[in-house]
Amino acid sequence: MPAIIDKIADALHLHRHHKEAESAPESSAPVTALQSSTEETGIVKAQSLAVESKRPVFDNEKVTVIFVLGGPGAGKGTQCANLVKDFGFCHLSAGDLLRAEQNREGSQYGEMIRQYIREGQIVPMEVTVKLLENAMRATLAENHEGDGWADGKGRFLIDGFPRKLDQAAKFDQEVCLSTCVLFFTTTEEEMSKRLLERGKTSGREDDNEESIKKRFLVYKEQTMPVIEHYSKEEKVETIDASVSIEEVHETARGVVEKLFANK
Ligand SMILES: Nc1ncnc2c1ncn2[C@@H]1O[C@H](COP(=O)(O)OP(=O)(O)OP(=O)(O)O)[C@@H](O)[C@H]1O
Ligand SMILES: O=c1ccn([C@@H]2O[C@H](COP(=O)(O)O)[C@@H](O)[C@H]2O)c(=O)[nH]1
Predict the structure, then answer these.
(1) Whose CA is nearest to atom 25 of ligand 1?
(2) Which residues line ligand 2 (CB under 6 A)?
C-alpha cells in the first residue's frame, strides 16, 4: 500500500475492518456495537468497533444505492436534484463531500483533497468511501420521511462515484451493493461549454480550461472502465444528456420508475 494511503487508512482505523450491525444482511455473523467518535462532522464522525467481517455495512435489500455517472459537466447534479423531488432520494455527491471535508476546519486531509481536485485526480478511495459511508449512516439515523424510508430502509443517489474500479469494488463489497448506474452522456464539447459557463459563478477551482482538460482525461482513462464493468453486469442505464434539462429529466424519471416497479 503506498505510504499516503497507509497513513489515511491508519487515521481512519481502516486496517481493523470495522463494521456495524445495523442494516447488515441478516445471514451474516453477528458484530459488536457502533462507537461514535467525539468529532461532530467529517471523516471520523462515526467509527464502529466490531469484529472482523467482510460483509457490507448496509443491506442492499433495505438500502437502494444508485450510482450516477457521466463526464464532468454532463448534468449529473442537475438531474439528481430533479430525481430527489420525484422519488425522495438522498442525494450524496462525492465531489461535494470531498469539498466539504477540504474546507472543514482542522481536517488533516484538506490540503491533499484540494490538490487532487485542482489536478482533476481521484482522491485516495479510503477517504471518499468513508465520507460516503458516514453520510449514509447519518441519513439513515435521521428518520428520513417519505417513500422508501420506513423500517430502516433508504434510497440514495450517489453522484460522481465510483470514479475508479477500485472504489467501485470497495463500495460494493464493504458499504452496500449498488443496484444500478445512471449514465448521462453527451459530447466533450457540450460538457466543456457547460462547465465554462458554470465556472463564471460556481467558485469551483476546477471549472477552468486547464482543470477541465485533466478531468476529461481522468474520466476517459479511469471512469470509463467503471462503466464497462457495470455494463457487463447489465446494471447501466444510459441516458442522452445532450438535450434540454427537462427532456433529460423525463428520461431519467422513466428509468427510475421502471427500476422501482421491478424491485
Ligand atoms: N441538459 C442540459 N442542458 C444545458 N445545460 C445543462 C444541462 N444539464 C445541466 N446543465 C448545466 O450544465 C452545468 C453542469 O451541470 P451539473 O453541475 O449538473 O453537471 P455535473 O455532471 O454534476 O458536473 P460535475 O461532474 O462537474 O460535478 C450546470 O451549469 C447546469 O445548469
Ligand atoms: O469519487 C470521487 C469524486 C470526486 N473526486 C474529486 O472531486 C472532483 C470534483 O468532482 P465532481 O463530481 O465534479 O464534483 C473530481 O474531479 C475529483 O478530483 C474524487 O477524487 N473522487
Answers:
(1) 72
(2) 72, 93-95, 98, 116-117, 120-123, 128, 160-161, 163, 206, 215
